[in-house]
Amino acid sequence: MKTATVETNRPPPRSVDLPTLLAGGWVLLMLFTALAAPLMAPYEITSIDLRHRLAPPVGFGGTMLHVLGTDDLGRDVASRLFYSIRTSLLVAFGATAISVLVGTGIGFIAAYFRGLVEHALLLMIDVQASLPFLIVALAMLACFGNSLTLFVALMGLYGWERNARLARGLAITASAQGYASATRQLGAHPLRVYLRHILPNSAATLLVGATVTFPEIVLVESGLSFLGLGVQPPMTSLGVMVAAGREYITRASWMLLAPSLVIVITAVAVSVLGDWLRDKLDPTLK
Amino acid sequence: MSAVFRFAGPKVLRAGLSILIVVTFTFVVLRASGDPALQILGPSARAPDLEAFRRHWGLDQPLYVQYVRYVLAALHCDFGNSMLAGKPALQLVFERVPLTLALMLPALALTMLIGIPVGAYAAMHRDTWVDRSVMMLTVFGFTVPSFVLGLLLILIFSVTLGLFPSGGADRPESFVLPVLTLGLGGAAIIARFTRSAMIEVLSQLYIVAASAKGVTWRQVVRHHAFPNAIIPVLTLFGLMLGGQVAGAVLVESVFGWPGIGQLLVVSVANRDLAVVQVILLLVALTMTSANLLMDLLYGVFDPRLRGTNSGSQ
């Protein structure tokens, strides 16, 4: 055990290293694309250009007409890519919000009641651990069919158990601290203690938890969409594009490569950024 | 003996309870998804027929009676017939099990064979360029989703180089790409984990003590550091199995591998609920027993844990 040293002066802020900067830039670009997709896309995602079917991208024999080439129906790959990023990020944002809300709620409830409720929560976490989320999601989709709302709600179940465990831990630590018991002794309702006092004090850590959940949901969503069970046409998402590109892997590899590269770079960038954020916001989580 | 029981008992109980909850979950989901009579006989069925069907399958009984019957049937391995193939769902699933195992077992072996040495090597050469580049590679390894990795491997090794077939399960070479796809991601996770476990162990006092008494560095690593670092890596396997199962679903779909994963996707697309249910239970059973086994093995490897009931924390 090393002895803890109390730092009176904060260490000088370390300059951000190059990978983190690049990762940050890429994530910002993705967010911008998601917001501005309708302005950026040169074509409608469903507009068909049969004379330019499977046209290659610029630099590989293609023309500026379709910068990233076209797919098997002559639809513009770049436009579809922008809208795919939009859909994938939208689903992931909605689902992450649900996951954090549900997880925090359950975690706080477990922390407040303790005892039997807490054991029930631990058991549910065990059950969740015994079934990969992808399998559960597939089973639910088999039984309830698919719509975008349901799909987002389903994705919102992802990672709830981790968020719940985190929230429970934070709430238990917080209740042992002075400010929580002080408000409690002043006669505040438990709801008030939890929502007005403990929640704001735990928010930073919960947010870091969300940055872990978010990219994972992007990957699960693209996986399910790739299997044809996630986002349904005519809407498009990164997984939908990869699935379509797979059919033309020998003749039009750009259909596959464009969305694949976006998935790979985004996943790596978020991971790099998440590490940085974790070090920055909450060194104890490492 | 009673110490062993006190250590293992609660864990076994919890595992059993998890399985029961999964069975209950499939029952609830199955019932919530609609009236089986309507689903099988179709919307144009006449009322007396529906009535007869419900009576025949016990659907007119109260829900708890149905539930008990359902659990009893499940205990007798009776999961109904696949609506698509007309065969018992269990038989259909078990025909596919060997093919999926033929992918997962080599992939798990690959995960260990690459992950553990690479991680240990990186830890022993900490903060050199080897360590940094290996760690950068592992970031790619565990963030790139398996279906993208699989397709990129197909693009490179099948389409461009023509070395391996892009799909099917008929030739020995067919194994190479799916096993690689499934194994590389896991290897990256194991490598990172082994590295941090190893670094942690190397900073312990008993390593210093061993070096100080004149044991060669090679011996220190082999007899003192490595065995201690490997214990936490073992437990990770239980947790990683889930990722492997989910990965197998996607990888089988990418490579047209006729295993359980593909069966699951096809069954989901066709709403063949009996088959989905069997697969769900099979996965839950496998993973729960794997986790249980890891928990118990942990007790064997680390005798300090036997007295405390650390699993329920």
TrEMBL record, chain A:
Gene3D superfamilies: MetI-like (1.10.3720.10). Residues 85-274 form the ABC transmembrane type-1 domain. GO terms for cellular component: plasma membrane. Pfam families: BPD_transp_1. InterPro entries: BP-dependent_transpt_permease (IPR050366), MetI-like (IPR000515), MetI-like_sf (IPR035906). The chain crosses the membrane at residues 20-43, 89-113, 133-158, 256-277. It is a multi-pass membrane protein. Belongs to the binding-protein-dependent transport system permease family. PANTHER family: OLIGOPEPTIDE TRANSPORT SYSTEM PERMEASE PROTEIN APPC, PEPTIDE ABC TRANSPORTER PERMEASE PROTEIN. This is Peptide/nickel transport system permease protein. It comes from Rhizobium loti.
From TrEMBL, chain B:
It comes from the Bacteria. The keyword Cell membrane applies. GO terms for cellular component: plasma membrane. It is found in: Cell membrane. The chain crosses the membrane at residues 12-30, 99-122, 134-163, 175-194, 229-255, 275-298. Residues 97-294 form the ABC transmembrane type-1 domain. InterPro entries: BPD_transp_1_N, MetI-like, MetI-like_sf. GO terms for molecular function: dipeptide transmembrane transporter activity. PROSITE patterns: ABC_TM1. Keywords: Cell membrane, Membrane, Transmembrane, Transmembrane helix, Transport. It is a multi-pass membrane protein. Belongs to the binding-protein-dependent transport system permease family. This is Peptide/nickel transport system permease protein. It comes from Rhizobium loti.
